Amino acid sequence: MSRQKEYVSPAGLRLDGRRPFESRRMDISFGTLSGCDGSCDISLGRSKVCATVFGPRESVHKQEAKHDEGIITCEVAVAAFAGESRRNPQRRGRLSEDISAAVVQVARSVVLLSQYPNSQIHLYVEVLQQDGNEKIACINAACLALVDANVAMRDAVCCTNVGLLDDHMLVDLTNDELRSQCPVIAAAFTGHDTRNIIWLETTSRLPPESALRLLKKAEESAKELFETTMRRALEAHAMQILALQN
Hints:
Elements: E1 26-30, E2 38-44, E3 47-58, E4 71-78, H1 89-110, E5 119-129, H2 134-148, E6 157-165, E7 168-171, H3 175-178, E8 184-190, E9 193-202, H4 208-245
Parallel strand pairs: 4-5
Antiparallel strand pairs: 1-2, 2-3, 3-5, 6-7, 6-8, 8-9
Helix pairs in contact: 1-2
Keywords: Exonuclease, Hydrolase, Nuclease
InterPro entries: ExoRNase_PH_dom1, ExoRNase_PH_dom2, ExoRNase_PH_dom2_sf, PNPase/RNase_PH_dom_sf, Ribosomal_Su5_D2-typ_SF, RNase_PH
Protein name: Putative exosome complex exonuclease rrp41
C-alpha cells in the first residue's frame, strides 16, 4: 500500500532520527515513592510511567483469602495530560483496562504466587506521558517495581514491540508510526532467556512467515534492551541494597 508519508528515509532513518532496529532510550529509577512496598519509574523515549507495589499483604476479600496462591491486581491511571487521549475520558478508560489486563497477565507469569497464599499484591501504574509505547513501559515498570518490593519472581521481564511498515521492520514504534495502522507485535520475554515468551499481542492478522520475522526481531530487541539497560539497572539496584545493609 502506498503512503503519502515517508516513515523511513532513503538514508534509513525514521522520522525521529532512529534507525529501524533502534529502541528509544530507557531510563530506570527504583524506590522513587514512599508509602509503598516497591516502586519504579521508567522513561522510554517520551513515554513516562510510574509503577508502585502494595504487598504482598493479607487479602482484603475473605473469599479470595482462601486461595492457596497469592492474587495480583492492577489499577492503571492515564493522566489527562498524558497524550492524545487527553480530551477523551472513555479512550483513557479503555487504555487503562487494556494495560491493566496485560500487566496482570505478565506479572502472574513470573511471580511465584505459591509462596504467598491468602495474600494479595496490588500494582498501581500511572501513565504520565504517552508516545506509542506506554503499554510496554507499564509492563516493564510494573515488573521492576515487583523486584524493588522483593517479591519472589522466576525472572525479570523485558517487553518491546516491532512493526512492519512499508516493508521496513521497526522496533519500538512511536504514536505517529502506530497511526499508520501497520501490523505490530508486542511481546514480553523473561530477561535472562528471551526465548521464553510470557505475553504476546498482535494488532492484525499476519501471514505465519511475517509473524515469525517480527517475533524474532522482538526477541533480539528485548535481549539487547535487557543486556544494555535493564540488567545494569538491576545490578546497580542490588549493589545499592547491599551497601545499605552493610
